[in-house]
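Pipeline run #58 for the internal structure catalog. This entry was flagged by the ingest filter as a single-chain record with no existing model, so it goes straight to prediction. Upstream metadata was stripped on purpose; only the residue string is passed forward. Reviewer on rotation: M.T. Logging verbosity set to normal.
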Amino acid sequence: MTIKGIGTRGLAAGRAFMKPDVHMDVIFCGDATAAFKEAYDAVHADLEELAEKEDVFAAHLEMLEDPMLSESIEAFLGEDMPPVAAVQAACEQVCGMSEDTDDEYLRARVDDVRDVCRRLERKLCGDVFTWGDMEPGSVVVADELLPSDTAEMDMSKVSAFVTHRGSRTSHVCIIAGNHGVPVVVGTDISGITKGDVLLVDAYAGEVIVCPTPQQMKDFEARLDMEESSLGEVYEHRFEPAVTREGKKIPVFANAGNIGEVVSAMEAGADGIGLFRTEFVFMLSNQLPSESIQFETYRDAVLACKGKPLTIRTLDIGGDKALPYMDMPKEENPFLGLRGIRFSLAHPEIMCPQLRAILRASVFGPVRIMFPMVDTVEELSQALACLDECKLQLTQEGISFDRDIEVGIMIETPAAVIMADKLAQQCSFFSIGTNDLTQYIMAADRGNASVSYLYNALSQPVARAVAMTIDAAHRAGIRVAMCGELASDLNATALLLGLGLDAFSVASPAVPSVKENIRK
């Protein structure tokens, strides 16, 4: 039996180790507030220790300390809820603000909030499950895995992860990638039982359950080939990606926090091609101040160690709401007030962010990127706002990079059609193929009924990419790609043939994409 899902990369074989669904029901008697405080302190101490080993848990520590979460828990405790129920209710309240988003990255960050809350629950009621019975070479099968699970297990015993829930941008996938562990998410695991032999092909997103002798033999041959080739690829991760024709192609990474920037540098990235700023805004109980944003962007610049950092301005609105703003529900949020449209409608948000980015630019090479730009008028308004911020900082005697590069995301058919005009006002393009594919094909990528249309390698999308690149090159500017298509090794040759100047991918994909470019 073969089951399908969404894979990262890599091959693995092993026997299934099933993580049970642990229920947190508990009858509580005593001082609920004191119990929560004790659990909070214990989790805080655990995360401080883990943060020294994995950057992911530094972000988790920030989430635990976020007043929005703790104040929500305390409010439910004030309603005489038992502590476990209060944590669960607060978790749903906080996560509910952003889990319906179409942005896969932000949905993955919601999983991290759930992880922090799960830690609190375990401290409050005691989770008796342990990973001690896992045998070496196990394929861990679960409905869902969180970073805390990986922290508690012996990763040297894990050959792969197979889960029903999750996304390829989740921190579990990032941690797994750092350990060389393949992952397949979004699978139907109902037919797997403990001890079943599993062959995991994360490249294809496939899991073979109880393989035949011939399937096992063929798979073992592939494993041997991959083991020898991947080791060599990783050893060369810091070397530039140069095509056979001698053209150097930068391979950047996508990131959303400082830990992911650090991971990208360790993976050999030539810089950050997309630094998402939504997380700073969405996991907060109020608009982050200019100072808070400045510190975040400055730390990201420093983590790049002299390599360029491309900061995308706030990509919010419609399906991605800010909990502390009155954002009316839209009939069709994907065609609503999002991206640059939202920022232009809220200069009180856009201007402090641009000032913070400019201030951070003195610490290293920074580029500004505006999302969801459709028209020349939108770009002109954004640039005017940027010029006003530059003037303010100059008058205040605050330094910034006066030659900072400014680019835009190409994510809609309108942007493709107007690419020649848009290119005259900016320094670079970055193609976001996730949204671009959805808009060109008029196919919701989350709708299984039309999933056959959602194909970033289809002719309509390829033509749109070609049109964008041609228009940019005629204007003398560069074009990168930061959508999922950039990390698809089957698309590398096509994208290079179309003239793509740079790739921006998830950190674990950097070494392989570099090697593919060299071929």
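catalog note: The CA atoms of residues 222 and 228 lie 10 Å apart.
catalog note: Residues 22-26 have pLDDT under 50 and may be disordered.
status: ready for reviewer M.T.
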